[in-house]
Every structure is written in C-alpha cells, then in structure tokens.
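This part of the workshop introduces the protein records we will be handling. A record pairs a protein's sequence with a compact description of its fold. Backbone structure tokens are a discrete shorthand for how the chain folds in space. The question running through the whole workshop is how a given chain folds. The record below serves as our worked example for the rest of this section.
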Amino acid sequence: MNRAVALRDEETLAPSPYLTTVQSAPAPVSRPVATVGIVGLGYVGLPTALAFVAAGAPVVGIDISATRIADIERVDVDLLDSDRFRLRQAMSGQRLHLTTDVTMLATVDVVIVCVPTPVDEHLVPDLGPLRAACAMVVGQARPGQCLMLTSTSYVGTTRDLLVRPLQRRGMEIGTDIHVVFSPERIDPGRVSHQQESVPRVLGGVTDACALRGADVVSGIAPAVHVVSSPEAAEFTKLYENTFRAVNIAFANEMADVAGQFDLDITEVIDAADSKPFGFMAFRPGPGVGGHCIPCDPHYLLWDLRARRAGAPLVEAAMSRIAARPGQIVDRALGALAGRGRSIVDARVAVVGVTYKPNVQDVRESPALEIIGALVALGADVSFVDPLVPAVTSTDGRPVPRVERPADVEWDIAIVHTVHRESDVNWLDDVPVVLDATYRLAPAINRLVP
C-alpha cells in the first residue's frame, strides 16, 4: 500500500491531534510541541526557531558562529517585522536558548537541521556544512529523539548522512529514533508567505517516523503532506525549485524575444496572466540569486551525472540563468556606446544589490557578478541600496556605496533590485537607465535588457 495514502487513512487513529495533510483543515495548536533543537540559525533556522517558540515549544538554537549568536541576541538580523517582534519577545522570555555548544543537542526531543547547501565556483554542490552538521547531530543523538533534515540536497541525503550513521551506532530507525526529511519552504521578505501559512511536505524512513515527524511539523504549519519516503520529499524540493529555474530562464528568453518585435514583455505577461487556467506568470529580471534557485538544480544535475543520466532541459535552463548577468552587462555596454561613451571610467550606479527586494541577503546575487564584470572592463562602479551597508565584487574588492545618488553625475544606472525603502526619483536625471527589473514606469531615458 502507498505509505502516503496509508497514513492519511490512519489519521483518525493517530494519537496526535496535529497530523494533517494538504487536503485537511488546519489544526489549532492546543499544546506545546516537544523541546526543539535548531541546528543553523540563518535565513531558515532562525524563523523556524521563532515559529516553534510561538507555538509554545522550548527551543535551543545552535550555531557554530558566535558572531551570529551575538547578532541574534542584539536583534541585528534580517527578519520580517513580525519575526523581529517575536525575537524580541523570545529574548526577553525563557523559551529560546542560543548557544554554540553542540552537546546541548542531547537535551532536546527534536533536532531540526537547517544549514545552507551552497554550490562552489564550479557549480558543484558544497556538502561540507551539511555533512558537518549531520555528523554533529548523529554524534549527540540519543534514543527517543526525532531528527529532521530540512536543507535542500540530493536524493538520498537523509539516508546517507543520518540513517546509515545512526545504524552504525546500533540504533534502529523507527523504534529507537525517528528520522524524517521535511524541506523548508521559507520565502524571505514575503509577509504573505509566512511559515505558519505554508503547508509542509514530509517523508519518514518508516511509518512511525512519518507520524512522529508530522506531529512535530504540524505545530508550525497549517497542513502536512506526507509522502512515501525521505527520497520523495527530497525530490519534491528539487522539483519545486527546478520548476522555478526553468520558468525564470524561459521568462528571460521571452523578454529577449519580445525585444526583437519591439514589444513590452511586461504587457504581454500581464495579458497572458488574465487567463484563469493553464498559465503561471514568471517575470524576467537580471538573474537569480539567494540560496535556492541558483543552487538547488545543480544538486539534481550533480546527482544525475553520478548516475550517468541527464536532464537536458534543466541543463539548458541553468546555462541560460548563468549567462543572464553577462547579458545585462552587454546591454549596458551597448547603451553607453549608443551615446558615444566608452565603458572605461564611465560612472555606473547599480541600484539594489540584494538578490530580491526587501531583504538584506546578497548571496549569489547577480548584482555582484554584474559589478565585477563592469569593474573588470574599467568602469567606475558604485552601488545604491538602503538595506546593504557594504559589498565586495566577485574579485574581492569593496564596492563604493553612495547614499545621495542625486548628487552624482552618472553615465548610466542599472536597476537590479528595488526595495520598499528605495527612492528612484533621482533616476529621472540619469542619461540612461537600464531597468533589469522590468518594473519601472516607462520613460525616455529607460531601457530594458
């Protein structure tokens, strides 16, 4: 019998009042969940910790960086306003304990691993942080715990990094200890997609593992969709983000095609989006960044190469995504040349350097690659971003930050990210504005890639 179906059929017999599926009504939290340990307090781990605290659970937050712990204690971290409020409350109460002491993992009932899974400069998965975190968790694991992996990785990660090492310690999965994979679904900076409003997918090594894990996750999610295995849950996350990557690459390509017909791609997408079925709007832009879209599909492709298999459509999409910042640079060069201006010593403003609006995160941001390419060509590049105090380009050099861009005589401005706090009125006085967001109002001085 399919385990997902079996678990749904057994819900009325399950001891937990929380076990739900996507099809079920959200269950109210009526009792605290078990003591929870969060490994990794970044963009996923910290909001997850705060969600469990809000649900009534005592939480131990563990991070190897003492600096990160200190930043959290000062509330000097990038969070939604609602989570910032939660953090202040948690820090004034007794339910959130922050530490670098990994031995504290042995004191909790549930351990949730939320560490990053980046790729290196060759687009090869960097599993170092995840391997280290899982080894730490296994080393401190004790009978009775539930171990949950949330970090996006290749299919089979949960068994390779948690299940087999635990079995080598003599633990029986599903009896002595429970192991599940439940991919994070956090959308930084988006109030409409807070953790408590987004259903979670979960796959357990055994039915007992799935029941225990669903009991935990349903304390902070409106519904839990249980699948047949950790591998199915791992592939679900890869599928979700690869789907987005392919469609973003398509949107960028269609923006280029629209330009060949002298058409506004935004107008076309808006028109297509009026169809109530069979269409989902994806918008073109300067590229993709953050910890998901530029990285996750490469975990899938890397694993497929090891199996001597491939995914040509995904490979093409990721190639197009990697090339997008270079296209923006080429368009900027062409725009300057059209005005008789060389890129050498040209004053270039890059507006917004985070990978998406309303966050401080610059990881994998296309802006850094764009800046690095322009600097290498001899341009005088500065950045304008109310949320970011300092950045370095891909060559490691610091990039000047301008607080009053209206006081500078720019040759061109490249609009990469626009935040709620961003003032873009000064762009009216810039000779050429390359709007890589495709979101600014049309103007005589504005071009799109």
